[in-house]
C-alpha cells in the first residue's frame, strides 16, 4: 500500500502541468459584439466556437476541454480594458484572443502585457506593436501591401487616391502603400481621413472627380463603410476600388451588388480551392447555417486557437512562457494554407492573395496569389 501510494503521488507530481491543472482550458474572448465592428464580431466569435468544437470533439487540449469565456468589448477602448482585466483577474483565463480594430487591440495589449498573459490577435494590423506575450495571426502591411503594389501599378493604374477612417491602421497602411507604390512607379495623389461616424463622404468623391486618380483605395471601416460604399456608387465613380471588404461584410451589411468588381488584399478567401478550406467552410455552415459566409479575420481567429492548442500540447503546459517557447516549432494546416509563427517577432507567416468581388457583390475570385510572405518587422524582436 505504501509503494502504491508513493507511485500515485509521483504520477501526480511528475505529470506535465497541463494535466495537473483544472478540468478545462479557459480561453478568454474579447469580441466586438456591439458597436462599430459588430458587423464582423459575430463571424469572429463563431470561428472561435468552431475551433473549440473541433478540439473538444478530439482530445481537447492535452485531454482538457476548451472553455470559451466570451466578453463584448463594445468596439471601445474602455470596454476592451475592462474586459481584459475581468478575463485575467476574475475568470483566470489561460489565454486571451480576439478584438478587431486598433483601439481594441492596443487597449487589450496594455493590460495583457503588464500581466504577462498571452494575447492572440487575428486582424490585419498596422504593425508597430511588439510584446513577448503578443501573437499576431493576421497580416501586417508588408505582407499585404508590398507584394500587391507592383501588380496594382501594372494592372489597375499609376495613381491612387486614399480615403480612410482616421485611426492607426489606415494611417500606417497609407504609409506602406505610398512607399511600395512609388517603388513600383506609382504615385499617391491624395489621402483624406474621416472620423468614426461620418455620414457625408461627398467631399472625397468631389476630390476624386477633380484629381482623376486611376484607382481609389478606401480604408473606411465598419458601419461607416456601408455609408461610404452606398455613396460611392451613387456618385457613379468609375475608377477601380480597393477596399477592406470580404464575403461576410458584403453579404450581411451591403445592398446586393454594391461591392461588385472591388479588389482587396487578404490572406484568406472562401474561393480558395483546397481540401482544408472546403472542410472549414462545410463545418462552419453545418454549425451556423448554410447561407453563412466566413472571412479572413474569422479564419485567423480559428487558426490562432488551433496554433495555441498545438503549442500547449507540445509544451505539455499551459504556462504562457512554455507555450510561447513551443509555438514557433509547430505548423498548422490552415484554410489559407500552411502557416507558422516566426520565432523572432511572434507574427505569423501568412499567405497573400488579391481577391476581386464577383458580379453578385458577395463572393470573390482569386485575382492574384503571391504565396506565403514572411513577416519582416524592424520594430519588433522578441
From TrEMBL:
Q: Which residues form a coiled coil?
A: none
**Pfam families per record:** Peripla_BP_6 (PF13458)
All copies of the Leucine-binding protein domain together span 24-359
Q: Determine if Signal is one of this entry's keywords.
A: yes
* Keyword field contains Lyase: no
Enumerate the UniProt keywords alphabetically.
Signal
**Top-level taxon in the UniProt lineage:** Bacteria
Q: Which family does it belong to?
A: Belongs to the leucine-binding protein family.
- Annotated PANTHER family: ALIPHATIC AMIDASE EXPRESSION-REGULATING PROTEIN, PTHR47628
Q: What is this protein called?
A: Substrate-binding protein
Organism from which the protein derives: Mesorhizobium cantuariense
Amino acid at each position: 500500500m505504501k509503494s502504491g501510494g508513493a507511485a500515485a503521488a509521483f504520477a501526480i507530481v511528475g505529470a506535465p502541468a497541463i494535466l495537473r491543472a483544472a478540468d478545462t482550458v479557459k480561453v478568454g474572448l474579447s469580441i466586438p459584439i456591439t458597436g462599430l465592428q459588430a458587423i464582423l464580431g459575430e463571424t469572429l466569435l463563431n470561428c472561435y466556437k468552431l475551433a473549440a468544437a473541433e478540439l473538444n470533439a478530439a482530445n481537447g487540449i492535452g485531454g482538457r476541454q476548451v472553455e470559451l469565456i466570451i466578453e463584448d468589448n463594445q468596439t471601445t477602448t474602455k470596454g476592451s480594458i475592462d474586459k481584459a482585466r475581468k478575463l485575467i483577474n476574475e475568470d483566470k483565463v489561460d489565454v486571451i484572443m480576439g478584438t478587431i480594430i486598433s483601439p481594441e487591440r492596443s487597449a487589450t495589449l496594455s493590460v495583457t502585457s503588464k500581466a504577462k498573459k498571452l494575447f492572440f490577435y487575428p486582424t490585419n494590423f498596422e504593425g508597430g506593436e511588439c510584446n513577448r506575450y503578443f501573437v499576431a495571426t493576421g497580416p501586417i502591411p508588408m505582407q499585404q501591401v508590398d507584394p500587391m503594389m507592383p501588380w496594382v501599378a501594372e494592372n489597375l493604374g499609376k495613381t491612387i487616391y486614399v480615403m480612410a477612417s482616421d485611426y492607426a491602421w489606415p494611417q500606417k497602411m497609407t504609409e506602406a502603400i505610398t512607399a511600395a507604390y512609388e517603388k513600383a512607379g506609382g504615385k499617391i495623389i491624395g489621402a483624406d481621413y474621416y472620423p468614426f461616424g461620418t455620414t457625408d463622404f461627398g467631399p472625397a468623391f468631389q476630390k476624386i472627380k477633380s484629381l482623376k486618380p486611376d484607382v481609389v483605395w478606401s480604408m473606411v471601416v465598419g458601419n461607416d463603410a456601408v455609408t461610404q460604399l452606398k455613396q460611392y456608387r451613387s456618385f457613379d465613380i468609375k475608377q477601380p476600388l480597393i477596399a477592406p471588404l470580404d464575403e461576410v461584410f458584403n453579404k450581411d451589411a451591403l445592398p446586393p451588388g454594391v461591392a461588385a468588381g472591388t479588389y482587396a488584399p487578404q490572406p484568406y478567401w472562401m474561393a480558395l480551392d483546397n481540401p482544408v478550406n472546403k472542410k472549414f467552410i462545410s463545418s462552419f455552415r453545418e454549425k451556423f447555417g448554410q447561407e453563412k459566409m466566413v472571412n479572413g479575420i474569422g479564419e485567423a481567429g480559428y487558426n490562432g486557437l488551433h496554433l495555441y492548442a498545438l503549442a500547449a500540447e507540445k509544451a505539455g503546459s499551459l504556462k504562457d512562457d512554455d507555450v510561447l517557447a513551443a509555438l514557433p516549432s509547430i505548423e498548422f494546416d490552415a484554410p489559407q494554407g500552411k502557416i507558422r509563427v516566426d520565432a523572432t517577432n511572434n507574427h505569423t507567416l501568412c499567405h497573400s492573395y488579391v481577391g476581386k468581388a464577383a458580379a453578385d457583390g458577395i463572393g470573390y475570385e482569386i485575382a492574384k496569389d503571391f504565396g506565403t510572405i514572411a513577416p519582416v518587422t524592424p520594430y519588433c524582436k522578441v
